[in-house]
Amino acid sequence: MGNNGHKQKNGKKRGVKLSVYIFSLIVVATSAIAGTYAWIGRSVTLPSTGEIIQGTNSSTLDAAAADRIGAVYQTLLNNYVEGVDKEALIEGALSGMVGAIGDPYSQYLNTEASDNLDETISASFEGIGAEIMSLNQQIVVVSPIKGSPAEKAGLLPNDIIISADGQDLHGLTASEAVELIRGEKGSEVVLEITRGDQNFTVNIIRDTIPIETVAYELDEKHPEIGVVHVSSFSTPTYDDIVSAVTELRTQGATSFVFDFRQNPGGLLDQALKISNMFLSDGSVIMQTQEKDAQPNKITASDSEFGDFKITEPTVLLVDEGSASASEIVAAALQESSQIPLVGTTTFGKGTVQTVYPLTENSELKLTVAKWLTPNGNWIHEKGIAVDYEVALPDYATLTIIDSTASYQEGAVSEEVKNVEAMLNAIGYEVEADGYYAKDTVEQVTAFQADNGLETTGIVTGDTSLALVEKLREVLSENDTQYAKAVELLTGNE
After folding, report:
1. Where's the PDZ domain (predicted)?
2. 349: burial class by Cβ within 10 Å (0-12, 13-18, 19+)?
3. Among 326, 330, 337, 394, which residue's CB has the most CB atoms within a 10 Å radius?
């Protein structure tokens, strides 16, 4: 986070390079290593910034603490009934020490995890494509990446991943969980998921994670509205937004909808540059607050962050999957440019991490500051409240159908209830009571006939896939959040 040059009258102030990190844990892997990694969004150092936080305490481990640690270490080596790996003991002690602070974003990284940390989103990756975090001993989905296998499989923000291929993830760090979820493109992983009071499994085929972070088009009914979808913040995102907006302007766009839904964040420098597009010089983009220090303001600057501007009427879409760097932009637009936010309250990631090298083979990823909105609000674990609260239809949270399972007459289960709810959502009315009765068979058969499928009345295989695809189409046609954004821009409320 940057030092903007303005002195604080009270409290200490330390500068922080913009090479500190806003972290996103994304289940991806490089094709060369064929693993699944926690991707960390690393920003580049920008001009006129201070030094990395060094902290204020210089205390060393006192003798009593050192004796206690040494006593446990030596006792384990001498007396444990089986052989003990000395390096594993040290690694475990270091991981446990960091884990004791209870911060899901701080972590000790050994050689392998440190290598994973250096993987960026500037190349293609393979995996399932979901941002995860370790929270309260559970592995929680922050957001699936748009177009990823995780999104296609129906994973949603706040889903809890209980196990991967039968291996329990409870109590693991995010990186440890990633190691169990990783695998090559084309391979399958079976995840057990808890969503509210539902428990179900999803089979996900790993694939290449799309790196294109910006997509755009004109609204079909209102071609004066340009729509820009931003799925994450990677190295080319700022330039891609410039290109998208420039092209949309040539096509006649005079207003814009920016879609940050399910955007898990990414590179801090991109968030600052994108925020700067909408703000005038001197307007506050964000604030950072380090330990025992007063907040430090980072302000818009065309000379530092680029002079491309978007002055047309704009609405920003966000939801509970909008996290980290996307929340920085959302807060900047809402509070410093009065651009309305539409959707639902964002995820709530309000801390800043940096990485300290410990040895040649290890690093410490540590939360070193809070980030605050331009008005000084800390959104951590609360999120950003939108200006227009608009929920998607209830069927947007329906569980993906397991195409390998078979649902037929006489079956009674929550999965059957989910299938029936999906049928209702796409226009085939049936009582969603979880009992696969004759009316369910009739509606399934009608759906199959309408879509050129074998009319068996059984939901499995191609019928399952077709139901899910039809639901996606219905959701796209009934995007209540996007419709509200269009209303605001056209004045047709």
Report:
1. 118-182
2. buried
3. 326
From-to residues of CATH 3.90.226.10 in the chain? 214-354+368-393
- Per-residue pLDDT band for 14 (boundaries 50, 70, 90) equals very low
Q: Which CATH architecture has domain 401-477?
A: Orthogonal Bundle (1.10)
Catalytic residue, from 151, 335, 363, 420: name it. 335
Q: Of 232, 301, 324, 336, which residue is the catalytic one?
A: 324
Dmax (CA) for the chain in angstroms is: 78
Helix ranges, 320-361 (H): 325-336
CA 474-426-490 angle, to 5 degrees, is 30
349 assigned to active site: yes
290 Rama sector, left if φ>0, alpha if ψ -120 to 50, beta otherwise:
beta
Q: What is the mean pLDDT of the chain?
A: 84
- Scored b (16 or more CB within 10 A) or e, 475-491 reads beeebebbebbbebbee
Q: Look up the pTM and report it.
A: 0.77
Please identify which residue in the block is written with the tokens 């409320």. 493
Name the residue among 332, 404, 327 with its Cα closest to residue 157. Answer: 327
**Cβ(214)–Cβ(245) under 8 Å?**
no
Instruction: Indicate which residue of 17, 349, 417, 484 is catalytic.
Output: 349
Spatial contact of 109 and 179, defined as CB atoms under 8 Å apart: no
CATH number given to 214-354+368-393? 3.90.226.10
297 annotated active-site: no
Reported as a single tens digit per residue, the pLDDT across 155-176 is 998 899 999 999 999 998 887 8
Radius of gyration of the chain (CA): 25
User: If phi over 0 gives left and psi between -120 and 50 gives alpha, with beta otherwise, what is residue 284?
Assistant: beta
Q: Label the pairing between strands 351-359 and 296-299.
A: unpaired
Collapsed DSSP state (helix, strand, coil) of residue 187: coil
β-strands 314-318, 255-259: how paired?
A: parallel
Q: Known catalytic residue: 231?
A: no
CA 429 – CA 310 distance, rounded (Å) = 46
Q: What is the pLDDT of residues 342-395, one digit of tens each?
A: 999 999 999 988 878 888 778 888 888 999 999 999 999 999 999 999 999 999
Strands (E), 196-343: 198-205, 207-209, 214-218, 225-230, 255-259, 284-290, 296-299, 314-318, 341-343
